[in-house]
Automatic annotation (TrEMBL):
Record SUPFAM superfamilies: Periplasmic binding protein-like II (SSF53850)
Keyword terms: Signal, Transport
PANTHER family tied to this protein: ABC TRANSPORTER GLUTAMINE-BINDING PROTEIN GLNH, AMINO ACID ABC TRANSPORTER PERMEASE
One Pfam family this sequence matches: SBP_bac_3
Keyword Transport: yes
Domain Solute-binding protein family 3/N-terminal: 61-286
Species assigned in the record: Pseudonocardia humida
Keyword Hydrolase: no
InterPro entries the UniProt entry points to: Bact_solute-bind_prot3 (IPR051455), SBP_3_CS (IPR018313), Solute-binding_3/MltF_N (IPR001638)
Record's protein name: Glutamate ABC transporter substrate-binding protein
Annotated family: Belongs to the bacterial solute-binding protein 3 family.
Signal peptide start and end residues: 1-24
Length: 300
């Protein structure tokens, strides 16, 4: 639950993300908007007293933790706000709460601090390419999933030796991922520990690949697609996904009512076409086929 409706964390962004802002997603980040239709903000909403929904509606603001360095899902624009599919999902939730998009405040939330910002009441929700898993469920509750990703590998465009995860160890590849992420843990099955390179944000992995410090970057395929788009032909996707990564929305542990509210909101967005519109305006620019909203998990 929120302890304060006025406390905010100052949003910061990695220097590398500023480079991506200038090159990725075309004019999307530069103009400060994704081009997705603005969700219809609910009016005359009534929520049960004491619920998170009632508190947020009364406050008139929503604090969202998201990525600032990931093209297509969460990339900081020149106006200071991120754009991408995750951001559009947050806007859909805010609108259902009666909160317009311009009343959302964003906090940069790299993988390693996603649970922390929820537990410490620094955000109300985290929508940040956030894979649902049992370890994270010990600290927070997930709504969703709202998207099904899969871990893959990104290499230099002229690389012909890395063709799947099984080729990483035999080739002695140095592979980059992000501290505290599910993909980083999964890499331990395919890469010698000494060859796993970890940074706090994926933009630094892209820089390491460009500079020859690593031979590959591994994370969810949609994240890699954004980095590939930003590379202007320097990188390519191996296109051999080897995991299933359901993306969920992180909230305070045990807030079942809020979880169920979010799941209902997602389902309504899928039915109305708002979910597809959010995809088309963001990640759909690189991966045109819109996903099907996954079946929601039980809230607990």
């Amino acid at each position: 639950m929120r302890l304060s409706h006025v406390t905010r964390i100052a949003a910061a962004t990695a220097a590398a993300a500023l480079v991506l802002t200038a090159t990725a997603c075309g004019n999307q980040a530069e103009l400060g908007g994704s081009g997705a239709p603005a969700p219809t903000v609910a009016e005359d909403t009534e929520f049960e007293a004491g619920t998170t929904m009632a508190e947020l509606n009364e406050a008139g603001t929503l604090r969202v933790g998201t990525k600032f360095d990931q093209p297509l899902f969460g990339l900081k624009g020149l106006d200071g706000n991120p754009v991408g599919f995750d951001v559009e999902i947050a806007k859909l939730i805010a609108a259902k709460l009666g909160i317009p998009a311009d009343k959302i405040t964003y906090t940069e939330t790299p993988s390693r601090i996603r649970e922390d910002v929820i537990v410490n009441d620094q955000v109300d929700i985290v929508v940040a390419t956030y894979t649902i898993n049992d370890a994270r469920k010990e600290k927070i509750t997930f709504a969703g999933p709202y998207y099904q990703a899969g871990q893959d590998i990104m290499v230099a465009a002229d690389n012909t030796t890395i063709t799947g995860p099984e080729t990483l160890k035999p080739t002695g590849a140095r592979v980059c991922s992000v501290t505290g992420s599910t993909p980083a843990k999964k890499l331990e099955e395919y890469v010698d520990p000494a060859n796993i390179v970890l940074f706090d944000v994926y933009s630094k992995c892209a820089d390491a690949l460009r500079n020859g410090q690593v031979e590959a970057v591994s994370t969810d395929n949609v994240i890699l697609l954004g980095l590939i788009e930003a590379s202007q032909g320097a990188f390519k996707l191996v296109d051999k996904p080897f995991t299933e990564e359901p993306y969920g929305i992180g909230i305070t542990k045990g807030d079942v009512q809020f979880c169920e509210f979010i799941n209902t909101t997602l389902q309504e967005a899928s039915t109305s076409g708002a979910y597809k519109a959010a995809w088309d305006a963001t990640a759909g620019k690189v991966q045109p086929e819109a996903p099907t909203l996954p079946t929601a998990d039980a809230c607990s």
